[in-house]
Write a structure and sequence with these properties.
CATH architecture: 3-Layer(aba) Sandwich
Helix content: 40-55%
Order of helices and strands: EHEHEHEHEHEHHHEHH
Radius of gyration: 18 Å
Number of helices: 10
Length: 273
Protein backbone atom coordinates (compact mmCIF):
# COMPACT_ATOMS: atom_id res chain seq x y z
CA UNK A 1 0.00 0.00 0.00
CA UNK A 2 1.86 3.05 -1.24
CA UNK A 3 -0.67 5.76 -0.40
CA UNK A 4 -1.83 5.65 3.21
CA UNK A 5 -3.36 9.12 3.38
CA UNK A 6 -6.88 8.84 4.76
CA UNK A 7 -6.73 5.05 5.07
CA UNK A 8 -8.31 3.35 8.09
CA UNK A 9 -5.76 1.22 9.93
CA UNK A 10 -6.65 -1.16 12.76
CA UNK A 11 -3.79 -2.21 15.04
CA UNK A 12 -3.99 -4.82 17.79
CA UNK A 13 -1.54 -4.55 20.66
CA UNK A 14 -0.95 -0.90 19.90
CA UNK A 15 -0.87 0.63 23.36
CA UNK A 16 2.88 0.54 23.99
CA UNK A 17 6.23 -0.60 22.64
CA UNK A 18 6.49 -1.58 19.00
CA UNK A 19 2.74 -1.46 18.41
CA UNK A 20 2.64 2.14 19.63
CA UNK A 21 5.44 3.14 17.26
CA UNK A 22 3.80 1.36 14.33
CA UNK A 23 0.62 3.31 15.08
CA UNK A 24 2.65 6.52 15.14
CA UNK A 25 4.26 5.67 11.81
CA UNK A 26 0.85 5.23 10.18
CA UNK A 27 -0.38 8.52 11.63
CA UNK A 28 2.63 10.32 10.16
CA UNK A 29 1.61 8.91 6.77
CA UNK A 30 -1.78 10.58 7.14
CA UNK A 31 -3.77 7.49 8.08
CA UNK A 32 -6.56 7.16 10.62
CA UNK A 33 -5.53 4.72 13.34
CA UNK A 34 -7.83 2.63 15.50
CA UNK A 35 -5.83 0.76 18.08
CA UNK A 36 -7.05 -2.21 20.11
CA UNK A 37 -5.55 -3.30 23.43
CA UNK A 38 -6.81 -5.13 26.49
CA UNK A 39 -5.63 -2.60 29.09
CA UNK A 40 -7.86 0.47 28.91
CA UNK A 41 -5.62 2.65 31.07
CA UNK A 42 -2.56 2.03 28.90
CA UNK A 43 -4.71 2.44 25.81
CA UNK A 44 -5.96 5.85 26.94
CA UNK A 45 -2.39 7.00 27.61
CA UNK A 46 -1.31 5.75 24.19
CA UNK A 47 -4.12 7.54 22.37
CA UNK A 48 -3.27 10.79 24.14
CA UNK A 49 0.39 10.34 23.19
CA UNK A 50 -0.42 9.50 19.57
CA UNK A 51 -2.74 12.48 19.33
CA UNK A 52 0.32 14.70 18.91
CA UNK A 53 1.10 13.00 15.59
CA UNK A 54 -2.37 13.13 14.03
CA UNK A 55 -2.61 15.16 10.84
CA UNK A 56 -5.41 17.68 10.43
CA UNK A 57 -8.65 15.94 9.51
CA UNK A 58 -7.41 12.53 10.66
CA UNK A 59 -8.07 10.63 13.88
CA UNK A 60 -6.69 8.16 16.37
CA UNK A 61 -9.00 6.22 18.67
CA UNK A 62 -8.64 3.38 21.13
CA UNK A 63 -10.85 0.34 21.65
CA UNK A 64 -10.36 -1.82 24.75
CA UNK A 65 -10.61 -5.51 23.86
CA UNK A 66 -8.67 -8.73 24.39
CA UNK A 67 -7.87 -10.49 21.11
CA UNK A 68 -8.46 -13.85 22.79
CA UNK A 69 -12.14 -12.91 23.15
CA UNK A 70 -13.40 -14.08 19.76
CA UNK A 71 -16.85 -12.52 20.05
CA UNK A 72 -15.42 -9.34 21.53
CA UNK A 73 -12.78 -8.79 18.85
CA UNK A 74 -15.29 -9.53 16.10
CA UNK A 75 -17.75 -7.01 17.52
CA UNK A 76 -15.00 -4.41 17.97
CA UNK A 77 -13.71 -4.71 14.42
CA UNK A 78 -17.25 -4.71 13.01
CA UNK A 79 -17.99 -1.55 14.99
CA UNK A 80 -14.90 0.22 13.67
CA UNK A 81 -15.76 -0.74 10.10
CA UNK A 82 -19.37 0.39 10.44
CA UNK A 83 -18.67 3.67 12.20
CA UNK A 84 -15.50 4.74 10.39
CA UNK A 85 -16.32 3.84 6.81
CA UNK A 86 -14.55 0.52 6.49
CA UNK A 87 -11.09 -0.88 7.17
CA UNK A 88 -8.12 -0.66 4.82
CA UNK A 89 -5.51 -2.56 6.83
CA UNK A 90 -5.26 -4.80 9.87
CA UNK A 91 -1.95 -4.92 11.73
CA UNK A 92 -1.77 -7.86 14.13
CA UNK A 93 0.73 -6.97 16.82
CA UNK A 94 -0.82 -8.30 20.03
CA UNK A 95 1.40 -10.92 21.62
CA UNK A 96 2.81 -12.30 24.84
CA UNK A 97 5.93 -14.23 25.81
CA UNK A 98 6.37 -16.82 28.55
CA UNK A 99 10.00 -17.94 28.32
CA UNK A 100 11.43 -20.90 30.20
CA UNK A 101 12.84 -24.39 29.97
CA UNK A 102 10.43 -26.79 28.26
CA UNK A 103 10.42 -29.04 31.32
CA UNK A 104 9.34 -26.18 33.57
CA UNK A 105 6.74 -24.28 31.56
CA UNK A 106 3.24 -25.65 31.96
CA UNK A 107 0.67 -26.77 29.43
CA UNK A 108 -1.41 -23.81 30.61
CA UNK A 109 1.50 -21.57 29.58
CA UNK A 110 1.48 -23.11 26.10
CA UNK A 111 -2.27 -22.58 25.77
CA UNK A 112 -2.10 -18.99 27.03
CA UNK A 113 0.56 -17.99 24.51
CA UNK A 114 -1.19 -19.86 21.69
CA UNK A 115 -4.51 -18.13 22.36
CA UNK A 116 -2.99 -14.66 22.25
CA UNK A 117 -0.29 -14.93 19.61
CA UNK A 118 -1.89 -17.25 17.08
CA UNK A 119 -5.61 -17.58 17.72
CA UNK A 120 -5.85 -13.89 18.58
CA UNK A 121 -4.52 -13.11 15.10
CA UNK A 122 -6.85 -15.67 13.50
CA UNK A 123 -9.89 -14.18 15.25
CA UNK A 124 -8.89 -10.65 14.24
CA UNK A 125 -8.21 -11.56 10.61
CA UNK A 126 -11.44 -13.53 10.28
CA UNK A 127 -13.35 -10.53 11.61
CA UNK A 128 -11.57 -7.99 9.42
CA UNK A 129 -11.33 -9.87 6.12
CA UNK A 130 -14.91 -9.27 4.91
CA UNK A 131 -14.35 -5.54 5.41
CA UNK A 132 -10.92 -5.59 3.78
CA UNK A 133 -12.31 -7.32 0.70
CA UNK A 134 -14.70 -4.40 0.19
CA UNK A 135 -11.73 -2.22 -0.73
CA UNK A 136 -9.79 -2.50 -4.00
CA UNK A 137 -6.49 -2.24 -2.12
CA UNK A 138 -6.15 -3.49 1.45
CA UNK A 139 -3.63 -5.24 3.68
CA UNK A 140 -3.06 -7.66 6.54
CA UNK A 141 0.12 -7.82 8.60
CA UNK A 142 1.11 -10.40 11.20
CA UNK A 143 3.96 -9.80 13.60
CA UNK A 144 6.15 -12.88 13.79
CA UNK A 145 9.76 -12.96 14.96
CA UNK A 146 13.23 -14.33 14.32
CA UNK A 147 11.76 -17.15 16.44
CA UNK A 148 9.26 -17.75 13.66
CA UNK A 149 11.94 -19.20 11.41
CA UNK A 150 14.42 -20.48 13.99
CA UNK A 151 13.52 -22.22 17.23
CA UNK A 152 15.80 -20.94 19.97
CA UNK A 153 16.60 -22.21 23.45
CA UNK A 154 14.04 -21.18 26.09
CA UNK A 155 11.16 -20.25 23.80
CA UNK A 156 9.15 -23.47 23.65
CA UNK A 157 5.82 -21.73 24.25
CA UNK A 158 6.51 -18.74 22.01
CA UNK A 159 8.47 -19.89 18.97
CA UNK A 160 5.84 -22.37 17.66
CA UNK A 161 3.20 -19.62 17.61
CA UNK A 162 5.48 -17.43 15.52
CA UNK A 163 6.19 -20.28 13.11
CA UNK A 164 2.42 -20.72 12.84
CA UNK A 165 1.90 -17.06 11.98
CA UNK A 166 4.36 -17.26 9.09
CA UNK A 167 2.60 -20.37 7.82
CA UNK A 168 -0.77 -18.64 8.10
CA UNK A 169 0.56 -15.61 6.24
CA UNK A 170 1.91 -17.79 3.43
CA UNK A 171 -1.51 -19.38 3.01
CA UNK A 172 -3.27 -16.01 3.04
CA UNK A 173 -0.82 -14.54 0.54
CA UNK A 174 -1.54 -17.40 -1.86
CA UNK A 175 -5.30 -17.17 -1.43
CA UNK A 176 -5.68 -13.38 -1.42
CA UNK A 177 -3.04 -12.13 -3.88
CA UNK A 178 -5.58 -11.92 -6.72
CA UNK A 179 -8.20 -10.27 -4.53
CA UNK A 180 -6.34 -7.07 -3.74
CA UNK A 181 -5.21 -7.94 -0.22
CA UNK A 182 -1.52 -7.44 0.52
CA UNK A 183 -0.10 -9.79 3.17
CA UNK A 184 3.01 -8.84 5.14
CA UNK A 185 4.99 -10.59 7.86
CA UNK A 186 7.00 -8.41 10.23
CA UNK A 187 9.93 -10.10 11.95
CA UNK A 188 11.44 -7.69 14.48
CA UNK A 189 14.61 -8.30 16.49
CA UNK A 190 14.75 -7.96 20.27
CA UNK A 191 13.30 -4.50 20.69
CA UNK A 192 13.72 -2.13 23.63
CA UNK A 193 10.16 -2.22 24.97
CA UNK A 194 8.45 -2.68 28.36
CA UNK A 195 7.38 -6.13 27.19
CA UNK A 196 10.96 -7.24 26.62
CA UNK A 197 12.05 -5.82 29.96
CA UNK A 198 9.41 -7.97 31.65
CA UNK A 199 10.36 -11.02 29.59
CA UNK A 200 14.02 -10.77 30.57
CA UNK A 201 13.12 -11.22 34.23
CA UNK A 202 12.30 -14.89 33.67
CA UNK A 203 14.06 -16.11 30.56
CA UNK A 204 16.83 -18.69 31.07
CA UNK A 205 20.46 -17.59 31.29
CA UNK A 206 21.25 -19.53 28.13
CA UNK A 207 18.53 -17.64 26.29
CA UNK A 208 19.83 -14.35 27.63
CA UNK A 209 23.31 -15.21 26.38
CA UNK A 210 22.03 -15.92 22.87
CA UNK A 211 19.84 -12.82 22.76
CA UNK A 212 22.62 -10.61 24.04
CA UNK A 213 24.67 -11.10 20.88
CA UNK A 214 22.18 -9.15 18.79
CA UNK A 215 21.71 -6.06 20.94
CA UNK A 216 18.46 -4.14 21.31
CA UNK A 217 16.63 -2.33 18.54
CA UNK A 218 14.80 0.95 18.99
CA UNK A 219 11.04 0.45 18.45
CA UNK A 220 10.77 3.59 16.32
CA UNK A 221 13.54 2.30 14.04
CA UNK A 222 11.82 -1.08 13.71
CA UNK A 223 8.53 0.66 12.91
CA UNK A 224 10.25 2.75 10.24
CA UNK A 225 11.74 -0.35 8.60
CA UNK A 226 8.36 -2.04 8.71
CA UNK A 227 6.67 0.96 7.12
CA UNK A 228 9.24 1.05 4.31
CA UNK A 229 8.64 -2.61 3.49
CA UNK A 230 4.88 -2.36 3.96
CA UNK A 231 4.59 0.51 1.49
CA UNK A 232 6.65 -1.46 -1.03
CA UNK A 233 4.29 -4.41 -0.70
CA UNK A 234 6.91 -6.78 0.66
CA UNK A 235 5.76 -10.12 2.04
CA UNK A 236 8.59 -10.56 4.56
CA UNK A 237 10.00 -7.58 6.43
CA UNK A 238 12.97 -8.62 8.57
CA UNK A 239 13.73 -5.49 10.54
CA UNK A 240 17.34 -5.97 11.61
CA UNK A 241 20.72 -6.81 10.11
CA UNK A 242 21.59 -9.60 12.56
CA UNK A 243 18.27 -11.41 12.23
CA UNK A 244 18.33 -10.95 8.47
CA UNK A 245 21.72 -12.68 8.43
CA UNK A 246 20.32 -15.48 10.60
CA UNK A 247 17.34 -15.84 8.25
CA UNK A 248 19.67 -16.33 5.30
CA UNK A 249 22.16 -18.58 7.11
CA UNK A 250 19.41 -20.78 8.51
CA UNK A 251 17.91 -21.09 5.04
CA UNK A 252 21.22 -22.24 3.59
CA UNK A 253 22.62 -24.26 6.48
CA UNK A 254 20.36 -24.87 9.50
CA UNK A 255 23.03 -27.11 11.03
CA UNK A 256 25.52 -24.27 11.07
CA UNK A 257 23.01 -22.02 12.80
CA UNK A 258 22.39 -24.80 15.34
CA UNK A 259 26.13 -25.11 15.91
CA UNK A 260 26.45 -21.39 16.62
CA UNK A 261 23.61 -21.36 19.14
CA UNK A 262 24.67 -24.64 20.75
CA UNK A 263 28.13 -23.17 21.26
CA UNK A 264 26.63 -20.16 23.02
CA UNK A 265 24.62 -22.41 25.31
CA UNK A 266 27.67 -24.52 26.09
CA UNK A 267 29.75 -21.44 26.86
CA UNK A 268 27.11 -20.05 29.21
CA UNK A 269 26.74 -23.35 31.03
CA UNK A 270 30.51 -23.66 31.45
CA UNK A 271 30.40 -20.51 33.58
CA UNK A 272 28.35 -22.41 36.15
CA UNK A 273 30.44 -25.58 36.09
Amino acid sequence: MKDLDGKNIVITGGSYGLGLEIARAFLKEGANVFTIARNKEKLDVAVEDLGRDVRRGRRVEGYPCDVTDREGITATIDTIAAEKGGIDALINNAGIVIPGYFEKVTVDDFETVLRTNYLGAVYSIKAALPHLLEHPESAVTVTSSVLGYKGIFGYGTYSPTKFALIGLAEVMRAELKDRGVQVTVLCPPDTDTPGLAEERKTRPRETEAIAGTGGLADPADVAAKFMKGFKKGKFMVIAGLAINALYRINGISPRFADYVFDSMVKKERSKRA
